[in-house]
Amino acid sequence: MSSNQFRKLCRKRFLGFMRIREWRDVHYQLTRQLRDRKGYRLNNTEAGYDAVHQALLTGLVSNIGYQDEDGSYRGARNSRFRVFPGSGLGKRKPKWLVCAELIETSQLYAHHCAKVEPEWIEQAAGSLLRRSYHEPHWQSRRAQVSAYETVLLFGLMLVGKRRVNYCSVDAKVAREVFIQSALVEGRFRSGKFLTHNQSLIDEITHLESQLRRRDLLVDDIEQFRFYDALVPVGICNGPKFEVWRKQAERETPRLLYMQRDYLQTRLVSEQIDHDFPPYIEISGLRYQLDYCFEPGSDNDGVTVTLPAAALRQVDDWVFSWLVPGLLAEKILALLRTLPKPLRRALTPVADTASQYAQQIQPEARALESVLADRVRRDTNVAVKASDFAAELIADHLRFNFNVVDDAGLPTGMGRNFSELRALLGTAVPDRATEASATEFHRDNISAWDFGTLPEVVEMLQGGLRVNTWPAVMDAGPAVCLRLLGSEHTARHRNQAGVARLMLLHESGRVKYLRKKLPGFNAMSLQYFNLPAAPDAFEILSPTSFKLADPRDDLIDEILLCAAVELVEQHGAIRSQTDFEQLCIKQSAALVAMVDQVCGTVSKVLADAHGMRARLQSAQPHQAEQLEPALSRLVYRGFIRSTPWRWLQRLPIYIEATEKRLQTMTANAQRDQQHATRLARFDQDLDSALSRARDEDHFVPELSRFRWMIEELRVSLFAQSLKTIAPVSEKRLQKLWDSID
Q1: In terms of C-beta density within 10 A (0-12 exposed, 13-18 middle, 19 or more buried), how is residue 270 classed?
Q2: Are 404 and 305 in contact (CB under 8 A)?
Q3: 113 φ/ψ angles, rounded to the nearest 5 degrees
Q4: Which of 103, 127, 151 is the C-terminal boundary of a domain?
C-alpha cells in the first residue's frame, strides 16, 4: 500500500496518519534496540489486555486512581477525581484504574481510562514506591523471621499487609527475633539442646508452681544473652542456624546446653519432694498431683486427678490435709476464719498457726477436727470443727479435683469433693462392673457357687488404678454379685447378702419360721400403723429389697435381722468353705435368734404403740416435740436398718421418751435447753445421711453417731436408765468433728 493510499485509509477510519506514523517509528526503534539483547524476543501473538496496560503504566504511573466509598477516586498526591461520564468505565467503576489524562472542567475528570491491578502498578512504579515493615515475628512453619510489608505510591496504598522474609530487610532485628522466639521461647525444632534446655526450664517452673513464687527461673533477658553470645552475627533463620550448629557441635558437642545453676537463681530445700509430693497415696493407690501458680484461675493450687470410681472410695477428710508444704498456710487461713470471739484467744494468730503447723501430725480425720481439738485443749475455748469456714479460704489451699472417666477424659472439676461425688459418683458401680470380669457381675444366685471373693479387685479406669470391692447383695428371692466403689458400702451390703444366702440355704427351716413367728398377729397390726421411714435413713439399711405386703415385709425383716446377726457373730465370710461352716454352726441357732428378734420387736412395737396413745392425750406442744423423736426410732423398715445391738436398746429409748413426757412441764426450761442441743445433732445427722444416700456411700461412723445421739437423749432426759457407754455433748461433738 502506497503512502497516499494509507493516508486515505486513515482518513476513512478516522485515524491520525501522523500519529500512526510516529508510533511505527517508535516501534521500529524499540525493536531494533532490543533485537540483539538477550532475554527479549518478538511475540508470535498479539499482546493481550494485561500486557498492553502494564506497558502503559510505565509512563502513566502518576495517573492511577483508587475508588473511594462515594464512587470518586483518590489519585496521586492526595488528588481526587471522577471518571468522565462519557467514558466506557463511567458506570463500571473498577477498584483501580489508570487514565491517559486528567482534565479539570466543573471538576477534575479522568479521560481514556482502563482497569488495572495493584500488582501491575507495583511492578511499574519501581523506585517510586515507599515500603514499610511492621510486626516482625517468628514463622515456625517456614523457620524464618517474617514481617508485614506495606507498599505506598504517591500516598495510595497498593499493599496493606503482605508477609515477607524479614532477614533480607533488617538482618540485625531479624536475628534478635530469631533468638528470642525460636531459641528462648523454644518455638524451633532443632537439636537435642533445645529439648534439654526446655526440660530444665520446665523443672524450675514446676518448682515455682509448687513454692508459689516466680523468682527461681532467670528471666528471658538472661536466656537471650546466653544464645546471643554464641550465635554468630548474620544468622537469622532456621536453615542458616542449623548449618552453623552442626558445624559448631562437631567441635563442642554441648555448646548450646544450658546448666541448671545458670537458669536457677537460688537453691531450694531438699525437702521439696516431701513438702510437695508428685502424688497422694490413698489405700495403697497413688493419684497424680499437679501444681499451678495462677491466682484467680480454676486450676490454681494443687489438682488431684481421680477416676470416677475413686469418688466412692475416698473419705472427704483425706483431702483436708492438702500437702505438707501448704499445711502451715492453710492452718493460718482456717484460724482466721474463726469468729472473732473465738479467735481472740489465739492472738497472735500467725504465731499460733506456725506453732500448730510444727506440732500437728496428720490423723485419720479432718484437719478441722484435729485443729478444733488442739484449740480447745490450749485455750479452753469451745471451738468446733464446723466453726472453721473452709469454703472461705483461698482456692489454692483447697484441693482441686479433676475427675476422669474410663478413657481418661475429664468429666468434672471442682473443689467441693462431696458435690462431685454426689454428681458423678452415682454411676460408678455400673462402670466398675462393665470394666470387671463377668465373674463379679451375676444375678439370680441361690447358692454359693462363685468361689472365693477377694477382699479387693484392682482395675484401671482412665489410665489410673482404682480399687473396687466385691459384695454379695440381697435381691429378695435370690442374691446378686457386684463390684462396688466403696469398701464400707460393700461390707455393709455383703452382710445382708450373705444373710439372705443363708436363709435360702435353710429354706425348709425358714418356711417353718414364716408360719410360726411368736406374737406375729399383734406385731403386724401395730407395724401397719407405723409412719414411713425418714428418707435420709435409707442408707442405714444393708438392703433395698422390700415386699409390697406389709405383713410379708415384716416377716422378711425379722428373718433377715436374725440372719444378719448370726453372720456378724461368725465373722468374715469370703469363700464357699466359710459359708458352709456358717450354715453348719449357725443354722441350729437360727430359730432361737428369730425368737429373740420377735420378742424384742414385739416389745418395741407395743411400747411405741402405747407411747403414741399417751401422746394423743398430751399437750399439743409436748406431742409436737416427742412424736418426731419417736418416729426416728420406730417406723416401717426400722428392723432392717437397725443393727441387733441397737435394736435391743429401742425399748430404753422409748422409755426415755416417756420419762421426758412426765418431766417436761416441771422442768420446761431445762427440757428446752436439752432439746435445742439435741436438735442440732439431729440436723447434722440428717444432712450427712442425706449426702451419703445421694452418693450411695455408707459411712459406719454415721451409724454410731446416730445411736450415740439416742444415748445422749437418755443421759439428758432419763439418767436413771443408764447409757450403754459414756456419753456427753462434748464426746458427741468430738465424734461428729471426726466424721464431718
Answers
A1: exposed
A2: yes
A3: -100, 155
A4: 127
The letter for the amino acid at 633 is: L
10 Å CB burial of residue 64 (0-12, 13-18, 19+) is buried
Three-state secondary structure along 277-324? CCEEEECCEEEEEEEECCCCCCCCEEEEEEEHHHHHCCCHHHHHHCCH
Q: CA–CA separation, 483 vs 442, rounded Å?
A: 10
Alpha helices in 62-153 (DSSP H): 118-125
Q: Report yes or no: 319 and 304 within 8 Å, Cβ to Cβ.
A: yes
The lowest-confidence range among 185-194, 423-432, 722-731 is 423-432
**Torsion from C-alpha of 295, 299, 301, 307, nearest 10 degrees:** 170
Q: What percent of the chain has pLDDT over 70?
A: 97
* Residue tagged 550448629 (cell numbers): 245
Polymer length of the chain: 740
Count CB-CB contacts under 10 A for residue 655: 16
Phi, psi dihedrals of residue 129, rounded to the nearest 5°:
-75, 150
Tell me if 594 is assigned to some domain: yes
- Residues 317-347 pLDDT 10s: 899 999 999 999 999 999 999 998 888 888 8
Per the prediction, the chain carries an average pLDDT of: 90
The total of other beta-carbon atoms located within 10 Å of residue 8's CB is 13
Task: Show Cβ contacts of residue 247 under 8 Å, excluding neighbours closer than 6 positions.
Answer: none
What mean pLDDT comes out for the span 461-488?
84
721: domain range?
486-739
How many separate domains does the chain show? 2
Report the Cα 18 to chain-centroid distance in Å: 87
- 479 strand-pairing partners: 445, 474
Please, what is the Cα angle at 608 between 605 and 611, to 5 degrees? 150
Q: Which residue has the cell 562437631?
A: 250
- Nearest to 695, CA basis, from 475, 474, 538, 543: 538
Q: Confidence class of residue 432 from pLDDT cuts 50, 70 and 90?
A: very low
Question: Would you say 626 and 613 are in contact if contact means Cβ atoms under 8 Å apart?
Answer: no
DSSP letter (8 states) at residue 246: H
Spatial distance between the Cα atoms of 34 and 42, rounded to a whole number of angstroms: 9
Is 60 exceeded by the pLDDT of residue 5?
Answer: yes
**Residue 502 domain-assigned (yes or no):** yes
Inter-residue contact 486 to 698 (CB < 8 Å): yes
The rounded distance, in Å, linking the Cα atoms of 424 and 409 is 13
CB-based contacts of 213, cutoff 8 Å, min separation 6 = 293
Domain boundary (75, 96, 127) is at: 127
CA dihedral 574, 578, 584, 585 (to 10 degrees): -90
128 vs 119: CA distance, rounded Å? 14
Residue 85 falls inside a structural domain:
yes
Residue type, 15: L
DSSP, res 381 = -
Residue 384: CA atoms inside 13 Å, Cβ hemisphere, count? 16
In-domain check, residue 196: no
**DSSP-derived pairing of the beta strands 80-83 and 108-115:** parallel
What kind and span of H or E run contains 343? helix 340-343
